């Protein structure tokens, strides 16, 4: 499950795209936990600056550096971090998709419905995506003041998502402002919503804002942990 969680964090970071200039976004995610009553709501803060990106939520900070081909996932409470290259991220993507179903079942089916609604100040239309056990209703708006260089970097960085990205690139002409997701796995249904709350263009950020902070201890990422376990098993 750790692989799915980390892959979801990074995938969310890719979800809007890459920009020219510096942008700050806020989005609110609500997750319905089938094992607990009620839901958990978190606010995610996102900064974009060309080929660099940083996201923060209450537990995790993720820094994506396409210029270095690296992703850092930080745990500020523990002062630890994991580092991944894009190749390792791709391997995680393949593993995550493999956990959810076979390749045939994971072929995405994208439908543009006739539904429209207003999300915050933005008018939006609906896309429905079914991908194996995952169903998403994504509300797209053309009114968001944010560049439309959209999903193209995901295509380059994540070959495992190429099929769905190619479909979305043809279907989408705006920015996701609200997403409803449901997933059924081993008889358990999980659901979440993500809503865009704020978009601002900003003039500057601290010079080291997208750098790995000092004082953090490096931990093995999930791919490295798996290799270590396999090597340990072979030595027995």
Q: What oligomeric assembly is this protein in?
A: single chain
Q: Are there runs of 5+ residues with pLDDT below 50, and where?
A: none
CATH architecture: Clam
How much is the radius of gyration in Å? 18 Å
Indicate the CATH topology. Answer: outer membrane lipoprotein receptor (LolB), chain A
Going by helix content, strand content and strand pairing, the class is alpha+beta
**Amino-to-carboxy terminus distance:** 26 Å
The mean pLDDT is: 80
Describe what you observe in this structure:
The protein is of the alpha+beta class. The chain has one domain: Clam (outer membrane lipoprotein receptor (LolB), chain A), CATH 2.50.20.10. It is 25% helix and 45% strand. It contains 5 helices and 12 strands. A 12-stranded mixed sheet has the order 7-8-9-10-11-1-2-3-4-5-6-12, with helices on one face. The chain is globular. The two termini are 26 Å apart. The model has no long low-confidence stretch (mean pLDDT 80).
């Amino acid at each position: 499950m750790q692989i799915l969680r980390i892959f979801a964090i990074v995938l969310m970071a890719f979800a809007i795209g890459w920009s020219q200039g510096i942008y700050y976004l806020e989005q609110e995610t609500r997750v319905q936990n089938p094992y607990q009553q009620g839901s958990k709501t978190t606010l995610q803060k996102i900064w974009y600056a060309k080929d660099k990106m940083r996201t923060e939520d209450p537990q995790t900070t993720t820094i994506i550096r396409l210029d270095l081909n690296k992703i850092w996932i930080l745990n500020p409470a523990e002062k630890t971090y994991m580092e991944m290259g894009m190749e390792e991220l791709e391997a995680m993507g393949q593993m995550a998709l493999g956990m959810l179903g076979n390749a045939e079942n994971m072929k995405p089916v994208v439908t543009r419905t006739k539904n429209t609604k207003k999300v915050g100040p933005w008018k939006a239309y609906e896309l429905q995506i079914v991908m194996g056990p995952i169903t998403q209703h994504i509300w797209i708006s053309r009114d968001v003041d944010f560049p439309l260089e959209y999903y193209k970097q995901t295509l380059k960085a994540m070959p495992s998502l190429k099929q769905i990205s190619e479909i979305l690139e043809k279907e989408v002409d705006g920015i996701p402002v609200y997403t409803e997701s449901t997933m059924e796995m081993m008889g358990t249904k999980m659901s979440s919503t993500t809503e865009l709350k704020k978009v601002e263009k900003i003039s500057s950020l601290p010079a080291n804002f997208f750098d790995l902070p000092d004082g953090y201890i490096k931990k093995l990422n999930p791919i490295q942990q798996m290799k270590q376990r396999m090597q340990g098993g072979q030595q027995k």
